[in-house]
Amino acid sequence: LDGLVVSEKVESNNVDVKIPKTELEAEEKGAEEEQRQRESDSNILDVSADYPRDKHISIQRNLADLEKLADLREDERKPCPLCPEEKFKACYSHKLRRHLQNLHWKVSVEFKGYRMCICHLPCRPVKPNLVGDQTFSKMGAHYHCIICSATIVRRTDMIGHINRHVNKGETESRFITVRAPKSSCEMMKESATDVQVLPNHSTPQKTDSYFNPKMKLNRQLIFCALAVLAGERKPIECLDAFGATGIMGLQWAKHLRSSVKVTINDCNENSVTMIKENCHLNKMKVKVDIKEEDSDETVGDVEDNGDTIEVTKMDANVVMHLRSFDFIHLDPFGTSVNYLDSAFRNVRNLGIVSLTSTDISSLYAKAQNVALRHYSSNIVRTEYYKELAARTVIAAVTRAAARCNKGIEVLLAVALEHSVLVVVRVLRGPSPADDSAKKVRYLIHCQWCEERVFQKEGNMVEENPYQQLPCDCHGSMPGKTAVLLGPLWSGALFNTGFLRRMLLEAVQYGLDEAQPLLKTLICEAECTTPKHFSIHSPGDENKQEECGVYIRTSNTFAESCLVHGKRKSEEVLRAPAKRQRGEHSAEQPPFYYNIHRHSIKGMNMPKLNKFLNYLSEAGYRVSRTHFDPMGVRTNAPLVQFKTVLIKYSTPTYVGAQAEGPVHLPGEIHVGEEAPAPATIKVEEPEVEEDDKSTVAAAVFTQSHPTHCAAD
């Protein structure tokens, strides 16, 4: 008992108080640990900021430092400091120096002036091998990470390990005591909007605030679409469901001001913090949800003006289920099909939904199984694969809208190098939903000649679907020559009136990068050449027809449609003379042909602009396409396309006629089997004098081969 308790006398009261000895020992140990921690902290402050503390001996700056570590002497044998004795025995200095240089220094990994040499010491034990009753434990070669002290076996894995640290922003060793986290942020400026980004801002899924400067054109197109909608009615509530840095929502609020009420959402806490900082950086007020009690910036009664941005932290599906919006933009990492049902659940009538899909590996037919899993669509790699990707996304959007009894009108579909952008207008009601669902069809694609046609409407099973193709490859080639792709969107990809208003907004706000693309899209939507392009539509300039509705473009009419900040009823928005557009969507030819894909061997093709004129003179509607710089969008069948291409191609050299059956214009009989547009004298177009002389020379070469050889 004397060992378990001690007696202490309190002088003030002369009372003996018995305290357990174990408690006193615990207090003494705690005091010692606190003192030791203070000493270690004081030692940390003395360490230089650019030198790793307690680093492994395999991490050195120079080869001379590694040799000093070995303590090389001419007359003594020294062991290797990075190898056990059983692996490398002690030797003289010249052999040890060569060993350190060849087996340790040359295979090292460099990072910020330090070399992480390979180490053979027993730092990383390998799993033991049981042989009989004995256990042999091996020691494997490995590297020591200067940042996290991890041990990596392979050099390539070590390089990837260091790169992952850099992508996460961990560019300094944990041994370094002086850190400056705020200085690691970079300032980016786009469209008069400043944002702070992390050093690894361009690496998705590696950073909390992803920012891709290459998507500037994508952001400008979305801004133009929102500006057009803001001109129709205001104020409108718009949502950036995946804010990241908040650059897109900041541009909306900064340029459109009181016309929009911007909500930026992100489910990541660090991203929400950075969005708030960027709002203050651009002198914008932040309106935070009242439920976020732990935030010091909570504002419950902030006035809804153009300088206020609402920032929310929740899942995108939850935000779109809880509130209604006029404009919703979805830009997740990868596919956006997981958010389509929520987006169309509460979007208002005649609102706009835009989505950016970055899963190009599946959309561009590089991962066909992923496209089938996400979009329920069967696609293959074709010459028009980018338009195929856009129609695949629109088909998924159409099905999601139809499940909510809503139809869509495609305003814009753009397939760029890294993403596919689709902008649609929402039409509420079962009838528009049925009309949109009927435009989702299958596509019959010939794998021999690249001819394609949408499958006819109807529920009857056709015995030979190959008969729908204009080509005769199935009859001349053995086996199956065509595949069934889809389901795909078979309607129009562009709305000409909406694109023209987008171009006006791009000119007004000085968006130089979006203007050339919008001009190309307008020519593609009207299926005309750039020389016939005009910024004003041929009809009424103050009205544009969309979704069977005439909408005025003047701001006075948009202001007259406001009744205490709300939209009027449908009879105000809809014109009295409501009419359907008829065959307006059929005027845009589906898909395009690549002129290089169908070129003739041994023949020089005409210039692309001249070839467009030749097709236009033959009676077909033609235009260039943004999907492919060498693509031609036309309503001409592939047979007539090749006919005109051969007609105006010139031989590369005289001997090219002997290489294959290259037919000349006088011998072409395929055009007689073409549909009605071919009756416009394809054989006798008006050509220039140089073209006539070229064709005449080609005919003379075939008719008199001996004379040409003699010449």
Written overview of the protein:
The protein has 711 residues and is α+β, with helices and mostly antiparallel strands. Among the domains are: 59-123 and 139-168, no CATH class; 186-290 and 306-456 and 477-496, Vaccinia Virus protein VP39 (Rossmann fold); 592-651, Phenylalanyl-tRNA Synthetase, Chain B, domain 1 (2-Layer Sandwich). It contains 22 helices and 31 strands. The strands form eleven sheets. An eight-stranded mixed beta sheet has the order 14-15-13-12-16-17-19-18, sandwiched between helices. Strand 16 (325-330), helix 9 (340-346) and strand 17 (347-357) form a beta-alpha-beta unit. InterPro entries: SAM-dependent_MTases_sf (IPR029063), Trm1 (IPR002905), tRNA_met_Trm1_C (IPR042296), Znf_C2H2_type (IPR013087). Pfam families: TRM.
In short:
It catalyses: guanosine(27) in tRNA(Tyr) + 2 S-adenosyl-L-methionine = N(2)-dimethylguanosine(27) in tRNA(Tyr) + 2 S-adenosyl-L-homocysteine + 2 H(+). The chain has 711 residues and is α+β, with helices and mostly antiparallel strands. Among the domains are: 59-123 and 139-168, no CATH class; 186-290 and 306-456 and 477-496, Rossmann fold (3-Layer(aba) Sandwich), CATH 3.40.50.150; 592-651, N2,N2-dimethylguanosine tRNA methyltransferase, C-terminal domain (Phenylalanyl-tRNA Synthetase, Chain B, domain 1, 2-Layer Sandwich).
